[in-house]
Write a structure and sequence with these properties.
This protein is an alpha+beta fold. Helices cover 64% and strands 13% of the residues. It has a three-stranded antiparallel β-sheet. Helix 2 crosses helix 3.
């Protein structure tokens, strides 16, 4: 999904090339994963010649929100405070990150 979000639209060959920069992966594996991702409603495709060009149905930001909610529900027992504590305990926050988070919390409180 990250490759599709970055490129906007891509075929299996382009996605395979991008992923192979990180580690070797077979073209057929990429094709299968893209087909399954489309079946799950994350991708759509259009036909150009003999190729399928895939694009994302779900925007990156929405996907991130869904993944965070799943993590809070599954790993944190539905308690977002546990997620924040784990973030601070195991990764820490820079001063700038802390200021931005404080501003977001203050803005959320006003709403």
């Amino acid at each position: 999904m990250e490759v599709i979000w970055d490129l906007g639209e891509a075929g299996v060959a382009e996605v395979t090339a991008a992923l192979n920069k990180q580690r070797p992966i077979a073209r057929n594996t990429v094709r299968t994963l893209m087909e399954r991702t489309e079946e799950k409603g994350w991708l759509t495709h259009r036909v150009e010649g003999r190729s399928f060009l895939y694009s994302a149905i779900v925007p990156r930001e929405e996907n991130l929100g869904q993944r965070v909610m799943d993590m809070v529900d599954k790993a944190c027992g539905g308690n977002p405070e546990k997620l924040m504590m784990a973030l601070m305990d195991y990764r820490g926050l820079t001063e700038d990150e802390s200021k931005r988070i404080r501003k977001m919390l203050d803005d959320a409180k006003k709403k």
